[in-house]
Amino acid sequence: QVQLVESGGGLVQPGGSLRLSCAASGSIFSGKSMGWYRQAPGKEREWVAITTGSGPTNYADSVKGRFTISRDILKNIVNLQMNSLKPEDTAVYYCNYVGPTGVSYWGKGTLVTVSS
Question: What is the per-residue pLDDT across 59-92, written as a single tens digit (0 to 9) for each?
Fold first, then answer.
């Protein structure tokens, strides 16, 4: 069984920074992808960033150059450093892990609000 627990959300002013963390437990394979998604009020969930083991990272165009995803394989933690935050980044941010059988696991989410 896999569990994902996000933390680090909160209220921040435009231009500010936040660091989200996702602690994973259970059967986590380092070669499988972990990532972050977000869902803004009234919108569908969208992909933000992904990292695969020690491989490359990818970002949505809307966050490229502002967000950085990192993963500590030994501790099973994936972080999302968010800089230059904009009001349109306001959303619930979810951690995601896709296991070797293709099953997708989700955390409960952490709310990020960017507002002055």
Answer: 999 999 999 999 998 899 999 999 999 999 999 9
Q: What is the pLDDT of residue 53?
A: 67
Please state the three-class secondary structure of 51-106 as a single string.
Answer: EECCCCEEECCCCCCCEEEEEECCCCEEEEEECCCCHHHCEEEEEEEECCCCCEEE
Low-confidence ranges of the chain (pLDDT < 70): 53-54
The pair of structure tokens assigned to 105 is 């696991």
Distance between CA atoms of residues 52 and 13, nearest Å: 31
Place of tokens 């892990």: 97
Residues 6+ apart with CB under 8 A from 59: 48, 49, 67, 69
Gap between the Cα atoms of 75 and 5, Å rounded: 13
